[in-house]
Structure formats: C-alpha cells, structure tokens
Amino acid sequence: MSNKPKVYIETYGCQMNVNDTEVVFSILISAGYERTEDISDADVIFANTCSVRDNAEQRIWGRVEQFNLQKKNRDGVIVGILGCMAERLKDKLLETKKVDIVAGPDSYRSLPRLLEAVRPGSPQIDVLLSREETYGDITPVRIDKNGVSAFISIMRGCNNVCSYCVVPYTRGVERSRNPHTIVREAEDVFAKGYKEVTLLGQNVDSYLWKCDSGDINFAALLDMVANVSPELRIRFSTSNPQDISDEVLYTMAAHDNICKHIHLPVQSGSDRMLEKMRRRYSREWYLQRVARIREILPDCGLTTDVIAGFCSETEEDHKLTLSLFDEVCFDTAFMFYYSERPGTIAARNYPDDVDIETKTRRLNEIIELQNKKSLESYRKDIGKKFKVLVEGPSKKNPEELCGRASNNKMCVFPDTFHKAGDYVEVEVLSCTSATLICRLV
Ligand code: SAH
Ligand code: SF4
Ligand code: F3S
Hints:
- The protein is α/β, with parallel strands linked by helices.
- It has helices at about 15-30, 55-75, 85-90, 90-95, 110-115, 165-170, 180-190, 220-225, 245-255, 270-275, 285-295, 315-330, 345-350, 355-380, and strands at about 5-10, 35, 45-50, 80-85, 100-105, 125, 150-155, 155, 175, 195-200, 210, 215, 235, 260-265, 300-310, 330-335, 385-395, 400-405, 410-415, 425-430, 435-440.
- β3, α2 (about 55-75) and β4 form a beta-alpha-beta unit.
- α8 (about 220-225) runs parallel beside α9 and α12 runs parallel beside α14.
- The longest helix has 24 residues, at about 355-380.
- About 45% of the residues are buried.
- It binds S-adenosyl-L-homocysteine (SAH), iron/sulfur cluster and FE3-S4 cluster.
- FE3-S4 cluster (F3S) binds next to α1 and α6.
C-alpha cells in the first residue's frame, strides 16, 4: 500500500472537461498524489464542473452534498470544485462552506499549492483566467476505459460571444496550442496503442498558430496529425458554421484516416433568432455550408446542436427550426431548451419570455422530428460497407462487438474474435435510429 494521498475526480460537461481532468491527474501525480476510482477511499474529492445550463449545475450541487457525507465519515477529506462552475461562481462557492478548494480552468497548475495550503476554515481559491495557458507541455493521464480513443485539446477559450452562452466567461479568450506539442501527443497515444484521436476546441476552424516559417491553420494542423500514421483515425469537434472552410473539407477528403463526420451546431433555423443569438451566419449560409460538405464529402456524417425557446422565439421561428431539420436530415442532434445564464448578453438584455410549457413542447417537437430523421439517415446506410474501429463488446450482447464507422454512426455485429482497437469491415443489414446492425465481411 502506498501512502500517497488519493484523488478522486468526477467529470461533467463537454469532452474538453474530460481532457482537462486528464491534465489535472497528470499535474497531481507529478506532485506525489495518486488516482483512485473509489470515492470512499479518496483523500481529495473533486468535481470538474459545467455551467452551460442550469440543470447541469443543479446536478453538480447534488453531488457536492454527497461529497460532504464523505467528510462526515472521514476526517481530513478535501472537497473541491474545478472547471466552469468554479470560474462562474468564484468565492460564492466558498460561502456555501461545502467546498475547500475552488480552481478555474486555467488554474490547474496551482492545484498542488492549493492542496498544500488548505486547512480547516481556510479554503483556497484560484480562478485567474490566462491569455496563454494551454497546458501544451503536459502529457494527460488517460482516464478512458477502452484504450482506443483519446481526446486532445488543440485550443482553449472562445472569442465568439454567442449571447446565450456562458463559455467565454468561464473559459476566457481563445488561444491555440503549439502544433508540435499536439502532434507529439498524437504520436505518444498512438505508440501506447490508441487508434483514434479527437481534436477539441470550441471553434476548431479558428485554430491558428503564428510562426516565422508560416502560420498553421486548422487545415494544416489536420494534415500534420493525419500524417502521424494511416492507422490513427482523426476526429474533431466543434466546427462553427461561420468559419468551416473549403480547405478543411478538402483536407478531410485527402486523408482516409480523417473521419468523415462534422458536428455543426445550428442552434436555430430562424435568421431573427440567429441574429439575436449573435451567431454570425444565416439560415441560407448554413444550408450552403451543408451543401458544400455533401458535395466535397458525399458520405460525411452530420450532427448538430439546437436550442428551443430562446428569448422572444415565436411559433414561426420554431417552425423554421423544424423545417431546417427536415431539410438537412442530421444523423443525430443534441437538443436543449434555452436556459438563461447569469451575466451573458442575453441575460442582461433580453427577457427569458418563452414559458417553460412552450419551451418543453417545442423541444419535444424537435426531438420527435429528429428521431424520424435519424431513422431516415441510418436507413440510407443499409447495404453499405464500412470500416469500423472496434471499441469493445456491445452493451446488450457479449457475443457482439461495437464500434464506429467513419461517419460516427455506431455499428454492432456478431464477432467473438476481434478486440478493441482492431479495424474490421462490416456490411449494414438493418438499423435503429441510433445503431447500424451489421455483419462482418
Ligand atoms: N462551441 C460550441 C458549443 C459549446 S456549448 C458551438 O459554438 O457550437 C454546447 C451546446 O450547448 C451549444 O451548441 C448549445 O446548443 C448549448 N447551449 C449553450 N448555451 C446554452 C443555454 N444557455 N441554454 C441552452 N443550451 C445552451
Ligand atoms: Fe459558446 Fe458560441 Fe463560443 Fe460555442 S462559439 S462556446 S456557443 S460562445
Ligand atoms: Fe460546460 Fe464548460 Fe464545457 S460550461 S460545456 S464544461 S466549456
């Protein structure tokens, strides 16, 4: 038994937070801590948090109550809040007396110092945002279970101030990470047996590394990472409709190992709403980008995010969202109703005036339509052959494996021979609205 203090972290929110938790473990392990997956064994309990919607925060508050029960059982347990809620609520979190440490997304290098300094009755906080921090030199300690797919952050922060969104306030200004450290990280995970990396940023298309020998944009970065090995698949998220360039689409087309899937959040189908949301594109622009994607990458998977019931949304605006969903036929969508976030442009300027019944009804209408469209999109793949990267046994049947096709659709197929990390060829026999049912070929 080692006597190193043990750290337990629960992660909420986006994939970037998953990667941040890996960075935090790396920093803490270098400082003499060790990781535990058992909360009842932990000396330090952290929640890496999300503020994007109110219900995300409410759930985390429920967990903080649970963490405090651990404190009652064992003396000296430290409870901390990391990430976006830490940044949004700052010292208000300390006033609750339920947390000992508060550290924002750019403060993780301070964690060993904060943990050193924390005493009963003297909590520690660091929520300074940085213009430079990218944790570029830190090798994340992978926390995923399957050892196949890894997240790599290529940038932090966001410079778009979409009026509903809290992210620019919790994550600070946009900064890109040195591409050489990104490539090195991709090489490192590949050497460790990983077969897929997902490059992460709030707006990957605005990635830019300025350099005397020529600037490196997102298309150039994709090319560099794709060249690590033809056996390493590349995914990325999130693309912004205003910035996704033809150059990126052509780079995707040029490399078999760059997966043909684009997550392209639309948020609304109404120009009036898009303008109020401060998205910098119109419905027409969005549809043109989709047409271009389908022209250059005919088999590309397409997914989206949408917000129902934003400030002053009328039935007419809502119908425009439905008609856009009908027209585009996304594979899947993350669908939410608007949740006002304190301090954002929308919260300061527009009343949250669509009542909750209407928001829920509109959201349900979008979900119902999208379920039909998902089925339509998955059906189009019946009879096609795909190269699938095996992730492991399927959830429902141990005699079946599952893994994703390039277009990001989940495939299941009877197979007791292959294992996680293998590439296999499958043919699609049938489908549900979320899974392609296949056989090995
Ligand atoms: N950078 C990405 C989105 C990050 S947040 C982009 O620009 O698309 C992920 C999703 O959460 C958003 O796409 C949006 O659909 C949703 N979201 C953000 N703020 C929200 C709010 N206040 N209420 C409801 N949904 C919200
Ligand atoms: Fe939020 Fe807009 Fe930035 Fe996405 S692009 S993180 S929605 S402000
Ligand atoms: Fe949530 Fe922060 Fe990500 S608010 S969605 S964890 S950037």
